[in-house]
Specification:
The chain is an alpha/beta fold. The chain has one domain: 3-Layer(aba) Sandwich (Rossmann fold), CATH 3.40.50.300. Helices cover about 25% and strands about 20% of the residues. The chain has 6 helices and 11 strands. Strands 5-4-6-7-3-8-9-10-11 form a 9-stranded mixed sheet, sandwiched between helices. A two-stranded antiparallel ribbon has the order 1-2. Helix 4 links the parallel strand 4 and strand 5. Helix 5 runs parallel beside helix 6. The longest helix is centred in the first third of the chain and has 23 residues.
């Protein structure tokens, strides 16, 4: 009787098996490291130069991220754009405030409308931390942002575990990075503005932002957002990814056109200096003027009343 020959998988089948095995191993590693929820969900920036530095091509969801800003307006605009892509009317985002009210028209310019946002004010840091941990365990929310700074490893680890348990994405916003007179020191390679030493954190990524000058409407390579302030180009940030679990650090100059991000760092041939704007506003950028003065816009946050 003829002996049947053993069958071997085709090259294509073997390649698929290897790809599936690697994907499964990566997912297991992510779960072990706490670098995102089940399924490896991510939020791409839509820019290859940025997404290539992030695990699986996007910002990991269902975990904790830390954002430090040189001025409040830059941090508010950047995080608002991220929250806007996660929040829905059925699963809104929660913003835990420590200071003044948020300015709704400014947030709406980044796509974060009132029907998708819940704001909570906490006077004491301990109350803000408690509120953020409890909110991260609520699966009916899409994301939670807490205005908290200086958390130790234990506190940040509790927030990370809470995010993992529900799949809700958390953001720690420290908008006081430039408050102690050390503006732009991080760009010179120092750990924190003002000479402070940053402690250990369980956050999966750590970002540091600074507002940079925008170009005017004629010089800007990308279209100015509809309804934006006259004469100003797109808002721009110097964005540094300092730490990313499973990814690579990097630095870019990003702009927001009202619909998405643009990497404009390579487009800038004029050599504009990456300097911070003390009063970053709805469009956190500066406009060069003919007499070398630079206009400023009000902060995203509603100014305190004179009374």
């Amino acid at each position: 009787m003829p002996v049947p020959l053993p069958s071997f998988p085709s090259a294509d089948a073997a390649t698929c098996d290897r790809a599936g095995l690697l994907a499964d191993l990566r997912a297991r590693i992510r779960r072990i490291e706490g670098a995102g929820g089940e399924g490896g969900r991510t939020l791409p920036f839509g820019i290859d130069s940025v997404d290539g530095h992030l695990p699986d091509g996007g910002l990991p969801l269902g975990c904790l991220h830390a954002v430090a800003a040189e001025d409040p307006g830059a941090g508010t605009g950047f995080t608002a754009a991220l929250l806007a892509r996660l929040a829905t009317p059925k699963r809104p985002a929660l913003w835990i405030l420590r200071g003044r009210d948020l300015y709704a028209p400014g947030l709406a310019a980044y796509g974060l409308t009132p029907d998708r946002l819940v704001a909570v004010r906490a006077v004491r840091p301990v109350d803000a931390l408690w509120a953020m941990e409890e909110a991260l365990r609520c699966s009916t929310l899409s994301a939670v942002l807490g205005e908290l700074a200086g958390l130790d490893l234990t506190a940040s680890r509790r927030l990370q575990l809470a995010a993992e348990s529900s799949g809700v994405t958390g953001f720690l916003l420290d908008a006081s990075a430039g408050a102690s007179g050390g503006r732009n020191q991080w760009m010179a390679g120092r750990p924190m503005a003002g000479g402070r030493t940053e402690g250990l954190s369980a956050a999966v990524t750590r970002w540091r932002l600074d507002a940079v000058p925008s170009l005017d409407e004629e010089e800007d390579a990308a279209p100015r957002p509809a309804g934006g302030p006259p004469g100003l180009g797109m808002p721009r940030w110097s964005v540094m990814l300092e730490r990313c679990r499973g990814g690579r650090p990097g630095i870019w100059t990003l702009a927001w056109d009202g619909q998405g991000w643009h990497d404009v760092g390579k487009e800038d041939a004029s050599g504009l200096r990456r300097t911070a704007q003390s009063d970053s506003g709805l469009w956190p950028a500066r406009q060069p003027m003919s007499d070398n003065r630079q206009g400023r816009l009000s902060d995203h946050r509603k100014p305190a009343s004179s009374g």
